[in-house]
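Sat 14:20. Reprocessing the chain from the morning session after the first attempt stalled halfway. Input below, unchanged.
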Amino acid sequence: MTISDSQSKRALLAVGILYGGIVIMTHRHYGINLDETLHVTYGKAIVDWYLSSFTARDIFSFTNVWLYGGLYDLITHLLTAVSPLDTYHTRHLICALTGFAGVIGVHALTSRLGSARAGLIAAVMLLLVPRYYGHAMFNHKDIPFAVGYVWSLVLILRTTHELPVPSFRTAILTGVVIGATVGVRIAGIILAGYYILSLFLVSKSAPWKNEKLRVLLSLLTTGIVALILMVVAWPWAHANPILRPFQALAMLSDFPFSITTLFQGQVFDSADVPLYYAPTWLAIGLPEFLLLGFALSFKHVACNRSVLLVVIAVASPLVFVVITGAPLYNGLRHLLFVVPPMCALAALATDSLLERRDLLSRVLSGVIIVSGLVTAVDAIRLHPNQYVYFNRLIGGGIRSAVSRFDADYFANSHRKGVSWIEENRPGTTVHTTTADLLTGTTLRYRVIPWRADIILTSAHPDGHREIPGERLHTIEAAGVQLLDVIRVDSAWKGDPIYHGNGAEFHYAGLAASHAIQGNVERAQNLYEQAIELRPERAVWHYKLARLLMDADRIEGAIESFRKAIAIQPTYRAHLHMAACYHMSERYEEAITEYRRAIGIRFDSEWAYLNLGGSLSALGRYVEAEGAYQQALSIHPGLRDARHRLGELLTSQGRYEEASTYLEEAASDSGNAAVYHLLSRSYRGLGELDRAESAITKGIQITPRGDETKQELLNVGTAMHEAGKTDRAEPLYRRYLELVPGSEAGWLNLAILTYSQNRYREALDAFAMAAKTNPASVEAFLGLGQSADHLGELDRAETAFRRVIELDPENAIALGRLPGRPSN
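Finished this time. Tokens:
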């Protein structure tokens, strides 16, 4: 039975209403995935970036999220700000709506490739893919990218169908969608290749003659719009919108963390999975009806160039990850974007089968329909964990696959675990994936597992054996355990209790918790046990090195950094090893490592800043100044760079330049050292009033800083020498309040008061100086002179005799003693 385009769209609307109703009723059943708080943070960080006039750069030091565009996270953040619902429920509704936009996209794509009925079949197929449906409830990276991917294909094909004169509207829409897709994940840049390929395929069959200029204009319009939209919500790309997307592709693998994955019963690092990892996951994680339909679709390729483009859009990412061995995390979630075009191709084949009347076509149609119904039943039984689906034919179903492959890798089941605890153990303390799961409950979060009453742990093989205590409850999906709720044995203090297969991950996890507690020896021992079992994991060498570095065990840290770098030479490993060398005063080696870090991450203001410090320590001031300037060119608002550059220039007597940098560093700064240096610069320029103001501010911030207190005395001395005694005296007295045992302070005050004929105050000040330093000739001499002026001759004589003891040739003292000629 054929259906019209309007009938297909009305049916799609009905499907959408049904989908919407189900989502509204069930969206609260889904948990907060392990990456979700990161996306919340990134969305807010992009807003802060704009509100701070492009100076809020903290996000650039947080994992690797800044190497991705944040368009979806930005939009979601803005919508959650005005939503009456809480952050995560709002986000899940937005994600579900985005997921259905992909259903509409696959309908549009397939309708363009084939019939209206094929479009409806494709839409239903995509909704029946449990992993797509499950991820659509909470995956804020892979689902938006998949949706952008399928809509980009729709608009690329629309462009080619409008050739030789594509409309301006289509050019803009294509740019918007491609730009938005790349603005979610940089891998979307492959869409530009599809765009150019589609134009080439069409041009081979229908030359454009005199319309090449119009086509070029359309292509340029699409490119400009895509570039603008990609960059607008990607702070890191603002510095160079043309080069940085390509640089991001090269840098994405350079981060000192590694995700493990259970695959065919073995635990692999994400960077070391077998070459057949991706095809295997598609084969076991997608329903049989989709795999069968996709296999049957290849007969359409030879007669339709548009279908060929869609096949390429499915096959090229798979070929790329197989050939390059690119790291893939958590099953097929990074490949979700190929599922909608696969549905389009499968729907074309299914529609073709329905048109034919032969026995084989009817059998195959029946198999696809029955498979779809069975898959729907499986998805219902898995609710709300549809994303852990495995097909029955190849994957063996969830019950068979769960012991051999990653299942609840996003910890979706933890929400149900929290709900059970709230209902049965209210007010208790819980260790789970994120504290946000406990929002709105009476439960309290504990970051250290053995400090919690209850621990939620994913029920991977032997997982419950890592926690001593009683299993209170389990969370299941389709009769398969996904989560254990364990009451912790109160005697447990973080000792490893499981030593079977995969125990090294148990050791490393406990080591991280001990490190948080400051239990350095225990954490080190556990990291070493983990490394002994799996020495190739660079991340554990790196974490051990950071542990030792923070504990000031520098040589051990350097050795562990070396081992981490030998396995995976990352920016952070080089940066922190350089810091260790600097702390050990091995500045040349520090410089080498800082430059290696810069070679990996060319835009690191911190690497340049610290490089400048090591160069300065060696007296290589010109190079140090250049490094500080480079740090400022990357991050103009970096106060530390302005501070260090100001310090360097001050030490060279370049006070005018120094004051410029230090004034900017002092703006809203709470660092007394900056004001100390600023005072030195002003003093060097002879601007004593400004020097007094700066050092007064520094004293207010840190009244106990030795250098700051000394500068206060220096400013007072400069005021005194300039004849501004009324300004110098309060500075001396303030200094002496802070440093009552300072000989220099008492002498300066004594000399000032003596010069004003205030002999009693001078006498007291000289006496304090002499008390502070009984060997001070100047103090006793001034004491004697002051006593002489006051007529206290015995005291004066005693003071002068002390001067003679210290300096037998002192003419002034000799002249003032009885029987000696007076000067």
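The chain has a mean pLDDT of 91.
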